[in-house]
Amino acid sequence: MQSGLVDEVIAVDKRASGGPGRALARLRAETWDLILCPHESPRTALWMARLRARQAKVGFRQWWNGFAFSNRVVKPRDFPDALRQLSLLAPVDGRLAELFGDEELQLLRSPDVRGGLVDFTRQPIPEWASMRLREPRPEGKRIFLAPGSVWETKKWTSAGYQNLARLLLQRGFSVELVGAKAERELCESIAAKVPGVVNHAGRTSLAGLVDLLATGRALVCNDSGAMHAAAIVGLPTVAVFGPTTLALGFRPWNDRAVVVQKDLRCRPCGKHGGRRCPLGTHECMEGISALEVMRGLDLLFRKDAELGFS
Q1: Is the pTM of this model over 0.90?
Q2: Where a domain ends, among 57, 89, 108?
């Protein structure tokens, strides 16, 4: 809400007795101008069927959900998820419908690349589709590392982050850890083993994290929320992908980004990763070295130098 783009958030506490009912009652008390629904579950469709909208109720087409929406969009699954969500506006915005047919936009289709370093600096995101709200303002040589994730298998190894931090410190960078309160212990363990690393984990709000990231030269993270926070300020980002793949549609929505990953037949092992590796090896993350991630950073530094950012 601090961005000025959101007026109100209505939370649904599914665990509390009567929580969903209270949220639904609040939503039903209004007649909304337009309802856009990216969720595709039967429960959400039942909710949508009970809400009122003056202009339209738009959702993704399923064979069974015609009763819930006035307009349904075929989900463009070969595009990144950011564009999938924007496609919900096509029925009510003729210009957007035209833009989705633009040849340049086709270059942003999710690449089915399963290994190596994927360079997104060659695929500019059009301004109308960008999530960048402001420009970064780098202070010195600050590199942020975000080693956490809600999903255990999405985490690159602690040893990997430690080794990368040492490489960066040797090159004169300031290395700073960021993360949520739940990730503070992980970040503390890394900082304890690499003298000179600063730990901010658990000490900032989400808005504070975005403000902090805006002062950096780059971010190294997993396929996690920090990756998306960095896109808000256009911070150069190296994202380490393990159990998830780019073909799923989730990528840094940032054209100053690269992804480092391993080419393994077992990837992806799920849409969001999991609590443990199904094979017990976690090779998708264990097999990625600090030097590989450093190569991703160096690519971004070279690109920034070419564009006059450094």
Answers
A1: yes
A2: 108
